[in-house]
Amino acid sequence: MAHEDAPHYSRKHPPGEQADPRLAEAVRKKAGAGRGTISCRAAFEIVSESGVDPSGVGRTIDLLEVRLVACQLGLFGYPSKEGGKAVEPAAAVSPELEKAIRERLADGRLACADAWAIADSRGLKRIEVAAAAEKLGIRIKPCQLGAF
């Protein structure tokens, strides 16, 4: 759901692919009438309520041409922030946190799910792990919802 795809998020998926009606209803309800956006947090509420994998909810969001905003890692969807990011590089990163991040890298990147797992296992806010990754020059990718 990259910004350059807007408003054609469905193009990331095979032609003719249809949204799951149950998920589509949940997305519409959480997005609200006329807004055309849904927060990452609301998308994960749907994941929790439906038991569907995050990528399935993300695909439904794409197919409905709804824009995903307010990433819980602070990476996108914040219109009042420069570049849409809320995360800033951390002032410093503890050696333990750096080690935890580097141990989970794949192709030099930290998956969103791994960033969440690191935060949860260490009692940190998710955005704190994102800030550490920013400080270390490590990109977070892929998104669990398929936004990037």
In short:
The chain has 148 residues and is mainly alpha-helical. The chain is 43% helix and 4% strand.
Describe the structure.
- With 148 residues, this protein is mainly α.
- The chain folds into two domains: 3-69, no CATH class; 87-148.
- It is 43% helix and 4% strand.
- The protein contains six helices and two strands; from the N terminus they run αβααβααα.
- It has helices at residues 21-31, 40-50, 54-63, 95-103, 112-122, 126-136, and strands at 37-39, 67-69.
- It has a two-stranded parallel ribbon with strand order 1-2.
- α1 (21-31) runs antiparallel to α2, α2 (40-50) packs across α3 (54-63) and α5 crosses α6.
- The longest helix has 11 residues, at 21-31.
